[in-house]
Amino acid sequence: MYVVEKLLKLYPDPKCTLKYNKPYELLIATILAAQSTDERVNKITPKLFKKYPSLEHIANADLEELEEDIKSVGFYKNKAKNIKETAKLLLEKYNGMLPDNIEELTTLKGVGRKTANVVMANIYGVPSVIVDTHCMRLSNRIGFVSSKDPDKIEIELRKIVPRDMYTVFSNLMVYHGRAVCKARKPKCNECVINNVCDFYSSQSDL
């Protein structure tokens, strides 16, 4: 795929940018990253996971104290509640393991398809289209999709992107979205894929 090939020359080893050591830590970090940035989440998770070193510790955490621990991310009250409930469910129903399919993952509190796909891609190695804000923005700008609905975007991208490139493509969208194709003031003239970008073409026509 042209876009992937061009971007891989800039970002040869695109990976998930959330820091974690255990599978459930990635799940929690991804829940925290909703409406926030990976950078901000990475600042609080080392201390958080040191304070709560197991799912049991998280499940038994004092809710108000947990809220305070994650207060720097958006919607921290809901996220604290969801994290506690998810930890309990993982212990009670899954023996502390993460489900290995989208259907069960999305039954966990605070887990939508984006978070589930992050787990499937990084924990289970299943090629997955991860539609975060960067993927949504770039896919629309390039012209791959015309939608603000993450589920619809995922379906459309699955038709366009080769399956073995799903995860790489998703990670590249994050890297390029942060470095070049920013939400505000995108660096279109520096972009290596501007020759296939609808947004750049529309700006050039003005």
UniProtKB/TrEMBL annotation:
<dbReference type="Pfam" id="PF10576">
    <property type="entry name" value="EndIII_4Fe-2S"/>
</dbReference>
<dbReference type="InterPro" id="IPR023170">
    <property type="entry name" value="HhH_base_excis_C"/>
</dbReference>
<dbReference type="InterPro" id="IPR003651">
    <property type="entry name" value="Endonuclease3_FeS-loop_motif"/>
</dbReference>
<keyword id="KW-0326">Glycosidase</keyword>
<keyword id="KW-0255">Endonuclease</keyword>
<protein>
    <recommendedName>
        <fullName>Endonuclease III</fullName>
        <ecNumber>4.2.99.18</ecNumber>
    </recommendedName>
</protein>
<keyword id="KW-0004">4Fe-4S</keyword>
<feature type="binding site">
    <location>
        <position position="188"/>
    </location>
    <ligand>
        <name>[4Fe-4S] cluster</name>
    </ligand>
</feature>
<keyword id="KW-0479">Metal-binding</keyword>
<keyword id="KW-0411">Iron-sulfur</keyword>
<dbReference type="GO" id="GO:0004519">
    <property type="term" value="F:endonuclease activity"/>
</dbReference>
<keyword id="KW-0408">Iron</keyword>
<keyword id="KW-0456">Lyase</keyword>
<feature type="binding site">
    <location>
        <position position="181"/>
    </location>
    <ligand>
        <name>[4Fe-4S] cluster</name>
    </ligand>
</feature>
<keyword id="KW-0540">Nuclease</keyword>
<dbReference type="InterPro" id="IPR005759">
    <property type="entry name" value="Nth"/>
</dbReference>
<feature type="binding site">
    <location>
        <position position="191"/>
    </location>
    <ligand>
        <name>[4Fe-4S] cluster</name>
    </ligand>
</feature>
<comment type="function">
    <text>DNA repair enzyme that has both DNA N-glycosylase activity and AP-lyase activity. The DNA N-glycosylase activity releases various damaged pyrimidines from DNA by cleaving the N-glycosidic bond, leaving an AP (apurinic/apyrimidinic) site. The AP-lyase activity cleaves the phosphodiester bond 3' to the AP site by a beta-elimination, leaving a 3'-terminal unsaturated sugar and a product with a terminal 5'-phosphate.</text>
</comment>
<dbReference type="Pfam" id="PF00633">
    <property type="entry name" value="HHH"/>
</dbReference>
<dbReference type="InterPro" id="IPR003265">
    <property type="entry name" value="HhH-GPD_domain"/>
</dbReference>
<feature type="domain" description="HhH-GPD">
    <location>
        <begin position="32"/>
        <end position="179"/>
    </location>
</feature>
<keyword id="KW-0234">DNA repair</keyword>
<dbReference type="InterPro" id="IPR004035">
    <property type="entry name" value="Endouclease-III_FeS-bd_BS"/>
</dbReference>
<comment type="similarity">
    <text>Belongs to the Nth/MutY family.</text>
</comment>
<dbReference type="InterPro" id="IPR011257">
    <property type="entry name" value="DNA_glycosylase"/>
</dbReference>
<dbReference type="InterPro" id="IPR000445">
    <property type="entry name" value="HhH_motif"/>
</dbReference>
<dbReference type="Pfam" id="PF00730">
    <property type="entry name" value="HhH-GPD"/>
</dbReference>
<keyword id="KW-0238">DNA-binding</keyword>
<feature type="binding site">
    <location>
        <position position="197"/>
    </location>
    <ligand>
        <name>[4Fe-4S] cluster</name>
    </ligand>
</feature>
<keyword id="KW-0378">Hydrolase</keyword>
<keyword id="KW-0227">DNA damage</keyword>
